[in-house]
Automatic annotation (TrEMBL):
This is ditrans,polycis-polyprenyl diphosphate synthase [(2E,6E)-farnesyldiphosphate specific]. Its main location: endoplasmic reticulum. Belongs to the UPP synthase family. GO terms for molecular function: ditrans,polycis-polyprenyl diphosphate synthase [(2E,6E)-farnesyl diphosphate specific] activity.
Length: 242
C-alpha cells in the first residue's frame, strides 16, 4: 500500500473513531440530563451542592458567542440567573448579527419577571442605565456585544491615538484604553455555540486568558451542563504565557 493511501486510511479511521466518540458522548449527556429531570428535589439539591463544591475557581466574566443560531430568550435568561446563583459578576452575549441588540428590552423584561426582588442587574448596553450603590442581594453586570465592538473598536481607538503625535503610548496604555472602552474585565470563560469553535470577529484584544468551551447548541441548555462547564474551567491551569 502506498504511503499516501496509508495516510488517507489513517485519517479516515481517526475521523470515524472521533465521530463515534463524539456521538456517544452527546448521547450520554442527553440521557443524563433527561434522567436528572426526574430525580426527587432532595436528590437534585444534593447533586448541585456536590458539584458546586468541585468548583475551586470561578470565572469573573462569562461570555457567550452565538454563530448562526438565533439567541433564545429563555436560555439567555437562565444563564443570567445561573450566573447570579453561582456568584459570577459579569456575563456578556456576543451576537455578531446584531439581532439580540434590537430586542434587548424583551430580554430585560424576561429576566425581570424571574429574578428575585433583591437581585440587582446592571445592563451596560443601555445608555440610560443608572448604576446603583448600597443595594442588598446578589448582583451581576450584563452586556450585549456586537461586531462593532470587535476589530472596529481597535481601529477607532488607533485613529484617536494618531491625533496625539507627540505623546508616547505604550501597549499597556493602549490596553487600558481598550479595557475602559470595553467596560468589562477580560472574559475567563467563553461558551461557543456551534459544531466548531469559531469566534465570529469577537473583540480580539480581550481573549488572551479566555478558556473556550464548545456547545452544540444553546437551545435547551440545563443547569447541570452549566455546572459541568464551571467544573471543567476550575480544573484548567492558566499559565498566562509563562
Amino acid at each position: 500500500m502506498k504511503s499516501a493511501n496509508i495516510h488517507t486510511f489513517l485519517y479516515v479511521l481517526i475521523h470515524v473513531i472521533y465521530t463515534i466518540f463524539e456521538w456517544l458522548y452527546g448521547a450520554l449527556v442527553i440521557c443524563f440530563n433527561f434522567c436528572h429531570e426526574f430525580l426527587p428535589t432532595t436528590d437534585k439539591s444534593k447533586y448541585f451542592r456536590e458539584e458546586l463544591q468541585k468548583i475551586t475557581k470561578k470565572p469573573t466574566h462569562l461570555t457567550v458567542i452565538f454563530g448562526a443560531e438565533e439567541p433564545p430568550f429563555k436560555e439567555l435568561t437562565n444563564l443570567i440567573l445561573w450566573c447570579l446563583a453561582t456568584q459570577i459578576s459579569f456575563i456578556s452575549f456576543y451576537d455578531y448579527k446584531g439581532n439580540l441588540k434590537k430586542h434587548e428590552e424583551q430580554l430585560q423584561y424576561e429576566v425581570g419577571l424571574q429574578k428575585n426582588e433583591t437581585d440587582h442587574i446592571t445592563w451596560h448596553s443601555n445608555p440610560k442605565i443608572v448604576h446603583k450603590n448600597g443595594y442588598l442581594g446578589r448582583s451581576i453586570h450584563v452586556k450585549i456585544i456586537t461586531k462593532e465592538d470587535g476589530k472596529n473598536s481597535i481601529v477607532n481607538l488607533t485613529k484617536k491615538l494618531a491625533v496625539f503625535k507627540n505623546k508616547d503610548f505604550s501597549i499597556e496604555n493602549f490596553s487600558e484604553m481598550l479595557l475602559a472602552q470595553y467596560e468589562f474585565p477580560d472574559p475567563d470563560v467563553g461558551l461557543v455555540c456551534g459544531q466548531t469553535i469559531r469566534l465570529y470577529d469577537y473583540p480580539p484584544w480581550q481573549m488572551r486568558i479566555t478558556e473556550f468551551f464548545k456547545l452544540g447548541s444553546i437551545q435547551g441548555i440545563t443547569f447541570p451542563k452549566f455546572l459541568e462547564v464551571l467544573v471543567r474551567y476550575s480544573k484548567c491551569e492558566q499559565r498566562l504565557g509563562k
